[in-house]
Write a structure and sequence with these properties.
heterodimer, A: 394 residues, alpha/beta, two-stranded antiparallel ribbon, 14 helices, 13% strand, globular, B: 92 residues, alpha+beta, three-stranded antiparallel β-sheet, 25% strand
Chain lengths: 394, 92
């Protein structure tokens, strides 16, 4: 699109802004688990009070009126909210497709029955690992047997059995066992999602990033399993972007389709965007969703291409990947306008390859995995975000 | 899959949801963390896949609604594709 100027030249204009098709409500930061790879902000304990029910219902109505249709209910653990059924019922009446993203803790028979009756469309259950010991270690709680019970309930209530397992150095060698467990639980879909390094995962990156050899073994094991269960299960393997040479088209560009609301009502163009400096994030307590989405400075900040620096600015791929992830650019380089350093065209790509190189040495049997201490997500350890290449802290 | 018998009863797959979205002026198929915006003919076919009507019923209904004939091959091909993509499943 272009517009004529008085001088007759044409200037590029921003493309029309579409609706926030995908709404994610992070209903609470409270969670019974303490996962080391959680993407929640590391200073979550300092955020304000959770929105009351009436505000969540208003957000649903306002977003739906703009065209939002895909709804994720997440957290923290959304089942901690006692009004979850009320929120689901309103969302269903409005015509949302509703996906509950849960650890399963708190999903009793009575609650799943109530959620089903309220119109919940889908449940995504997260697992840490296939062995209770590893699971309990990684989440520092004893929840594995409970998850097996929850998986049975999900099937009993007619939901597709969808498992999400976050992979990292400490469990990626168990991929075959994880998939066997998923099969035993009757899973139809399994997402093996390598950790993305934000929030708590960023703090723990030095212990969580797998080696390339680990990754290749895991992909091979996944492929063997896929061939064995062909047709019965669908398995998605998400490679950590640190091993790529081009960045992910994060959120399809910030402010393009995705709107996340934090427990305190902060509206974000990405669930990790809270960390970005200078982004004055609006709050649904203060403004309607329409104003926030279309007019706020924060949601317009990364729309279009005017914010881009080189090498993105002149790159033919900029309309494909939008420069990658703004949060990753900030965490690694200190400037959210920089090219995501995952891209090999970034002058700071060495920050990523250096992290991978450290993972290579740490993953060896005699390596330094014990040099870093895992930080479990907890109110006690909740701290402000740390940026840089991640090698210096802890 | 194009040898699908006329008697199969396709339905929207469990866990997926099909609905008309005025904001997008289209039928959309919703699934966890994604959606497919359907074109006019795909929307017309999918919205008739209710697990009760047979493939023959769906073809007849479409031909009646649009005042045309000879849709059977196209509808069968689309249903086969949608089954392959797991947008549809067959009910007894």
């Amino acid at each position: 699109m272009s517009a004529a100027t008085p001088g007759g030249a044409t200037l590029p204009t921003a493309p029309a802004v579409g609706p926030p098709l995908w709404l994610l409500l992070e209903l609470t930061y409270r969670c019974p688990l303490h996962c080391v790879f959680c993407y929640n902000p590391t200073d979550f304990a300092r955020t304000g009070a959770e929105l009351p029910t009436a505000d969540w219902l208003r957000v649903l109505r306002e977003a739906r009126a703009l065209g939002a249709v895909q709804l994720g209910l997440s957290g923290g653990e959304p089942l901690v909210r006692e009004d979850l059924e009320v929120i689901v019922a309103e969302a269903h009446a409005l015509g949302f497709y509703i996906n509950l993203i849960t650890s399963g803790v708190g999903l009793t028979r009575a609650r799943i029955a109530a959620l089903k009756a309220a119109g919940l469309d889908h449940i995504q259950l997260s697992f840490q690992d296939s062995t209770r010991e590893m699971n309990d270690f990684l989440s520092s709680t004893r929840t594995f047997e409970l998850k097996a019970q929850v998986a049975a309930l999900i099937r009993e209530f007619g939901y597709p059995m969808v498992l999400n397992v976050v992979l990292h150095r400490l469990n990626i060698d168990h991929v075959a066992e994880i998939l066997e467990m998923a099969e035993a639980l009757g899973a139809q879909y399994v997402e093996l999602a390598n950790t993305q390094y934000y929030g708590w995962a960023w703090l723990n990156r030095e212990q969580l990033l797998p080696s390339r050899a680990q990754l290749e073994r895991a992909e091979a094991a996944t492929q063997r399993f896929r061939e064995r269960v062909a047709g019965r299960m669908q398995i998605y393997f998400v490679v950590p972007d640190y091993f790529e040479t081009r960045p992910k088209p994060c959120m399809n560009g910030l402010g393009s389709v995705f709107l996340a609301i934090a427990p305190d009502g902060t509206a974000m163009p990405c669930h990790a965007a809270r960390m970005l400096p200078g982004l004055d994030l609006p709050n649904v307590r203060d403004a309607p969703v329409r104003t926030i989405w279309y007019e706020s400075a924060a949601f317009n900040r990364f729309r279009g291409e005017a914010w881009m620096k080189e090498p993105c600015r002149s790159c033919p791929e900029r309309s494909k990947d939008f420069g990658g992830c703004r949060c990753q650019a900030y965490l690694l380089t200190g400037d959210p306008d920089n090219t995501d350093p995952v891209c090999e065209l970034s002058p700071q790509h060495a920050l990523v390859t250096a992290a991978v190189a450290r993972a290579e040495s740490a993953a060896r049997p005699a390596g330094g995995a014990r040099e870093h201490v895992l930080i479990f997500r907890d109110h006690r350890t909740s701290i402000p975000v740390v940026t840089g290449d991640g090698s210096g802290h802890r | 899959m194009t040898d699908l018998p006329d008697t199969v009863k396709p339905a929207i797959s469990s866990g997926l949801k099909l609905q008309w979205e005025a904001a997008q002026d289209a039928h959309v198929l919703l699934y966890p963390e994604g959606m497919v915006k359907l074109n006019g003919s795909a929307g017309a076919i999918m919205s008739r896949c209710d697990g009760a009507r047979t493939l023959a019923d769906i073809v007849a209904d479409l031909e009646r609604s649009y005042g045309v004939t000879g849709l059977a091959a196209d509808v069968r091909a689309f249903v086969a594709l949608a089954l392959e993509k797991r947008w549809l499943e067959l009910r007894e």
